[in-house]
């Protein structure tokens, strides 16, 4: 591998690695769930500087980038942090902070911060880091699939168009009158403008580029990290890639993020990157309800929900605020409330596209019903290829041809 060959230059000088290259090496650790207990997840868990040290050490070891003399010294030491290798990793961590990729924070009783010990210090990803991870995820997922023009989404509405296709056609009743003056005058030059007829009219076809408001509804219930498979990290990578895609290629669009578990809450893209698995159940109805509230504030041609999940609805927020839960099967009470929210989406013109990371027969039936009700799409996929499904569904919604 060319990149590994290049890294051989850093033998004994690992502290000179570029920060962006280092971020690329540890991106999965930064987004992943390795810093949480899968059997007792804590959604408020925040990674420490020790976690960052371990992630860098593991990345270097996996790529065979640690010089043999430093490796031998570290293996013989009781604390790798006290070795030359540990010093160089600390230098890399300092550079990540200096270059604006992480922000170091300290936990103490008064909340005012302090020097503390390494194990007591936490870190936050900065906006620069989030943008980098979004770009990297997008590049990895899209590869050579190319770029899409800004604002190119399917829409049921027609307009006079903002981009001409260059194709001409004779006017027919019902067409938008994008009149091509030159061609039309050419048809009447011989007989006079006063004798103009409908059949003489020539229009130039156009494309209508709609703007869209998207809510990414992301399941962070317990099942997303159970059964020996981390489904949450790939889902977060897709969400960050979609945010970067919309910001850079669809400037007229908006995207917001909602996490749902026992309940549901909106999170910013910066908080999303370090979000952890939440409480155990799946309150799909609560997620859909919050997504609708957020979309009502958007003045866009299209409003859509991209729901990424792996489980059946198993929780519901009652009118008094209590959470009703049933983890076994599709509880009729929970299912009924969930489908009512789906029906509300349809009445509001909101399309729900569901990306399902499981294939339970009852779950398949539920997802298909949701898709039919909102004229959305259902994709049954895996953590390995969900990115291609989500992003290609988004960018291949081509503009409508307006006659």
Automatic annotation (TrEMBL):
Q: What Pfam families does the database record attribute to this sequence?
A: VWA_2
Coiled-coil regions listed: none
Q: Which InterPro entries match?
A: VWF_A (IPR002035), vWFA_dom_sf (IPR036465)
**What region holds the VWFA domain?**
211-394
Q: Give the protein name, as stated in the record.
A: VWFA domain-containing protein
Q: Which organism is it from?
A: Deinococcus puniceus
């Amino acid at each position: 591998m060319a990149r590994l060959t290049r890294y051989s230059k850093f033998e004994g000088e690992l502290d000179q690695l570029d920060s962006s290259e280092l971020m690329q090496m540890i991106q999965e650790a930064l987004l992943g769930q390795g810093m949480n207990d899968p059997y007792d997840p804590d959604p408020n868990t925040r990674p420490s500087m020790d976690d960052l040290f371990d992630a860098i050490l593991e990345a270097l070891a996996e790529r065979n980038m640690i010089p043999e003399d430093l490796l031998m010294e570290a293996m013989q030491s009781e604390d790798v942090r006290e070795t030359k290798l540990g010093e160089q990793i600390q230098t890399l961590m300092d550079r990540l902070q200096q270059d604006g990729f992480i922000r170091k924070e300290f936990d103490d009783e008064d909340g005012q911060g302090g020097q503390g010990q390494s194990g007591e210090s936490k870190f936050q990803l900065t906006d620069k880091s989030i943008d980098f991870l979004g770009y990297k995820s997008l590049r990895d997922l899209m590869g050579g699939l190319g770029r899409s023009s800004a604002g190119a989404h399917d829409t049921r509405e027609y307009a006079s168009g903002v981009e001409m296709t260059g194709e001409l056609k004779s006017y027919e009743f019902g067409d938008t009158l994008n009149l091509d003056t030159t061609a039309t005058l050419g048809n009447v030059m011989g007989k006079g403008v006063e004798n103009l007829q409908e059949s003489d009219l020539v229009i130039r076809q156009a494309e209508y580029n709609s703007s869209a408001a998207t809510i990414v509804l992301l399941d962070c219930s317990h099942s997303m990290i159970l059964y020996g498979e981390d489904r949450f990290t790939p889902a977060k990578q897709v969400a960050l890639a979609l945010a970067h895609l919309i910001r850079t290629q669809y400037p007229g669009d908006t995207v917001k993020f909602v996490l749902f578990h026992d309940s549901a809450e909106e999170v910013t893209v910066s908080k999303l990157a370090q979000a952890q698995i939440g409480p155990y159940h799946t309150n799909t109805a609560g997620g859909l309800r919050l997504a609708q509230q957020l979309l009502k504030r958007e003045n866009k041609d299209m409003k859509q929900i991209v729901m990424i999940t792996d489980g059946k609805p198993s929780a519901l927020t009652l009118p008094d605020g209590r959470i009703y839960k049933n983890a076994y099967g599709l509880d009729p009470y929970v299912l009924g409330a969930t489908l009512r929210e789906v029906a509300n989406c349809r009445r509001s013109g909101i399309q729900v596209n569901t990306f399902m990371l499981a294939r339970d027969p009852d779950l398949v039936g539920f997802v298909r019903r949701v898709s039919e009700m909102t004229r959305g799409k259902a994709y049954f996929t895996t953590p390995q290829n969900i990115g291609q499904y989500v992003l290609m569904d988004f960018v291949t919604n081509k503009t409508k041809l307006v006659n």
